[in-house]
């Protein structure tokens, strides 16, 4: 019976395996891969048309082929699709009924094709669609019926097309949209109600278009959930007042690379939660008082590459959380020493690339910078003198007080500098900007008495300074600048010539001692770039990618331009971080490689998990304190059933192994029963023999007892007579054994 059952079980397994093989061959089209059930991947296979498959396919990948159009019946057999990838093909036309049967589709990727028109109603059946990519095509116009009522759509990409305008109803029914990409188009006009229905929108990118003005206050009025707004790379010359006043949740605003000439006092009003503002690459000439006042929570402010000549001393007073301020590559000549007095959180200040005039007015700024550095901040601030000619090219940190006060012994010179500053703040035609004129009129003009009082104060101040020159020229260490690096720098200023080589040496020494990110001057020799800082080297890490993802390992690769290396004596390494997301238990892990490696294999990963990996450099044993967001890549490990390369022969071997174990188990049970029966039989026979020998149920025979006693004790002489038949007592065997004390003579 057992043999017959085993044979039937083996036949059933063989039939199941055959059926599995037939189903697998039928579900996976030719030239395609099917790593998982209901997944068909045909990327980069040279296909010119969509392959035929069963209706049970859920994921269909056709990227990187030569498909020219999508007809009405091309996807008729894929009624259960949830993800369709048609990117990087040559699609010019999509039939209006191409997606008519795809009621379960959630992700549709049509990017990087040649689509020039989307017919109205094309996406109407896709009521479950959440992601739609139409980027990098040639779409020129969108109507109110293009997207239909896609109320489940969350992400929409239309960047890198040829759109010129957005009508009022184009996004009317996309009430769940959260991410909208419209960058790199030809947008000249956007209807002021185009975004009125997008109340859940969090990300909006309008960069690299052709807008010239932002005046309509209702354009962004309904975007109450917007977090990021990017309008860089347009042709904006003016941003009206109260344009952003309804964006209460906005944390990042980019207006870079436009032609903005001036910011109104109410331009930034309402941005109470803004943390990052970038306005680099514009034509700003000044920063007036009160313009930045609404940005109470801003942490990063980028104003580089403008034409700023004047900054009001109170411009940054309300920015108490400001951490990074970039004013490089402007036209500043001097700045008030009290301009940053209230910015206690400021640790990175960029002032390079300006036309600084190093005179007595810069003395207080120099002292403030020294005191701030002594507290471990402003390590990257470099002020390079442009005027006067005797100090041209020198850094303010290494200009002593005698040089700052040279030729400034009279009050007339200081007053001349004041008049020159006022003149510089005026326009090229000698007229003050409107904001400066209004501010001066509000404060009131100065009388002759005020001028005389001011001149007297200047004389007293200069006399006091001349008395302190001798004391200040000697090396001294203030109570605030107690660190060893500040002391070394002050003494080295007196003993070494102020050359760029010495300055770089001092900066490098500070960076190595404090292990903090520091920008250094790049050295270009024979087409190569030598770097001494990890933050600087991180900028040259490019092409971070992930390959060969399996259930427990993956390969991370990156590259750097040729000729990029560190200065001699500083070892270069790379650190690869990888962390798991989407699970309650998370912890980051690191892998270190030497400077010659550009790839690393991550192992011991968890299957079917989401990971993120980042690459950063380690220069001289020091890391950059700024996280390398631009050098990260995400990936998802596959499940064990999908990526462990378990083929059908492995499945067959596993089934046969299970059968062998089952046979052994059945045989073991049967053999155990036989052994137990034999043991029981032996025990029963042994108990019967003992009872036969010591049974108390047999009658006592007196003749036999008399004979035995007389034969055994015939020689025994005693005065006691022998026992009679009536004196003998019969005991049961069990009671007899239990009453014995000497077990060594009669064992139980």
TrEMBL record:
Region Disordered: start-end pairs: 407-456
Domain of life, source organism: Eukaryota
Residues of the signal peptide: 1-26
Alphabetized SUPFAM superfamilies for the sequence: Fibronectin type III, L domain-like
InterPro entries in the cross-refs: FN3_dom, FN3_sf, Ig-like_fold, Leu-rich_rpt, Leu-rich_rpt_typical-subtyp, LRR_dom_sf, LRR_TM_domain-containing
Listed Basic and acidic residues bias regions: 407-416, 437-446
Transmembrane segments: 651-672
GO cellular component, one term: plasma membrane
Keywords noted in UniProt: Leucine-rich repeat, Membrane, Repeat, Signal, Transmembrane, Transmembrane helix
Domain Fibronectin type-III: 540-641
Coiled coil: none
PANTHER family: ANTIGEN BSP, PUTATIVE-RELATED, CHAOPTIN-RELATED
Protein name stated in the entry: Fibronectin type-III domain-containing protein
Species per Swiss-Prot/TrEMBL record: Hemibagrus wyckioides
């Amino acid at each position: 019976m057992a043999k017959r059952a085993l044979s039937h079980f083996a036949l059933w397994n063989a039939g199941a395996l055959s059926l599995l093989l037939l189903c697998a061959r039928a579900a996976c089209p030719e030239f395609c891969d099917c790593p998982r059930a209901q997944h068909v991947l045909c990327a980069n296979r040279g296909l010119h048309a969509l392959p035929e498959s069963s209706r049970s396919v859920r994921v269909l990948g056709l990227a990187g082929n030569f498909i020219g159009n999508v007809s009405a019946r091309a996807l008729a057999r894929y009624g259960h699709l949830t993800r369709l990838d048609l990117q990087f093909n040559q699609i010019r036309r999509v039939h209006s009924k191409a997606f008519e049967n795809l009621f379960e589709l959630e992700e549709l990727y049509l990017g990087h094709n040649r689509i020039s028109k989307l017919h109205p109603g094309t996406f109407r059946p896709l009521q479950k669609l959440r992601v739609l990519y139409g980027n990098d095509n040639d779409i020129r116009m969108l109507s109110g019926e293009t997207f239909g009522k896609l109320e489940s759509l969350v992400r929409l990409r239309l960047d890198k097309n040829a759109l010129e305008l957005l009508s009022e109803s184009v996004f009317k029914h996309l009430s769940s949209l959260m991410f909208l990409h419209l960058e790199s188009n030809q947008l000249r006009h956007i209807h002021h109600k185009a975004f009125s229905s997008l109340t859940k929108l969090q990300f909006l990118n309008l960069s690299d278009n052709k807008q010239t003005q932002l005046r309509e206050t209702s354009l962004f009025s309904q975007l109450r959930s917007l977090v990021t707004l990017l309008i860089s790379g347009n042709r904006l010359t003016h941003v009206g007042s109260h344009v952003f006043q309804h964006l209460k949740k906005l944390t990042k605003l980019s207006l870079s690379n436009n032609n903005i000439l001036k910011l109104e006092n109410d331009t930034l009003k309402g941005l109470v939660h803004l943390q990052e503002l970038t306005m680099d690459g514009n034509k700003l000439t000044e920063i007036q008082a009160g313009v930045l006042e609404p940005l109470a929570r801003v942490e990063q402010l980028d104003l580089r590459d403008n034409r700023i000549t004047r900054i009001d001393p109170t411009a940054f007073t309300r920015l108490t959380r400001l951490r990074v301020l970039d004013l490089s590559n402007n036209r500043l000549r001097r700045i008030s020493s009290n301009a940053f007095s209230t910015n206690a959180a400021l640790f990175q200040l960029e002032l390079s690339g300006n036309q600084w005039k190093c005179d007595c007015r810069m003395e207080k700024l120099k002292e403030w910078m020294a005191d701030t550095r002594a507290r471990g901040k402003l390590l990257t601030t470099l002020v390079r003198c442009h005027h006067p000619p005797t100090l041209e090219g020198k850094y303010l940190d290494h200009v002593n007080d005698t040089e700052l006060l040279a030729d400034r012994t009279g009050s007339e010179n200081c007053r001349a500098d004041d008049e020159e500053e006022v003149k510089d703040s005026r326009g090229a035609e000698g007229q003050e900007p409107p904001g400066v004129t209004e501010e001066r009129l509000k404060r009131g003009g100065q009388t002759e008495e005020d001028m005389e009082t001011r001149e007297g104060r200047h004389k007293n101040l200069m006399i006091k300074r001349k008395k302190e020159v001798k004391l200040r020229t000697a090396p001294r260490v203030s109570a605030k600048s107690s660190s060893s690096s500040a002391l070394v720098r002050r003494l080295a200023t007196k003993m070494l010539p102020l050359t760029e080589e010495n300055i770089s040496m001092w900066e490098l020494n500070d960076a190595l001692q404090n292990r903090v990110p520091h920008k250094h001057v790049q050295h270009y020799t024979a087409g190569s770039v030598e770097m001494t800082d990890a933050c600087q080297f991180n900028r040259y890490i490019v092409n971070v990618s992930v390959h060969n993802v399996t259930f427990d390992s993956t390969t991370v690769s990156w590259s750097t331009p040729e000729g990029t290396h560190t200065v001699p004596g500083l070892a270069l390494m790379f650190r690869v971080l990888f962390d798991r997301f989407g699970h309650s238990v998370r912890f980051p892990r690191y892998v270190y490689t030497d400077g010659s490696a550009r790839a690393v294999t991550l192992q011991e990963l968890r299957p079917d998990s989401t990971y993120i990996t980042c690459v950063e450099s380690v220069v001289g044993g020091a890391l950059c304190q700024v996280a390398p967001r631009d050098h990260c890549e995400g990936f998802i490990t596959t499940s064990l059933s999908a990526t462990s390369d378990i083929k059908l022969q492995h499945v067959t071997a596993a089934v046969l192994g299970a059968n062998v174990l089952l046979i052994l188990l059945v045989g073991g049970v049967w053999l155990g029963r036989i052994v137990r029966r034999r043991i029981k039989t032996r025990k029963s026979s042994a108990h019967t023999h003992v009872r036969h020998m010591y049974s108390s149920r047999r009658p006592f025979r007196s003749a036999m007892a008399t004979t035995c006693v007389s034969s055994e004790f015939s020689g025994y002489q005693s005065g006691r007579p022998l026992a009679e038949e009536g004196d003998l007592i019969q005991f049961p065997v069990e009671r007899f054994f239990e009453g014995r004390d000497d077990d060594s003579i009669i064992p139980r």
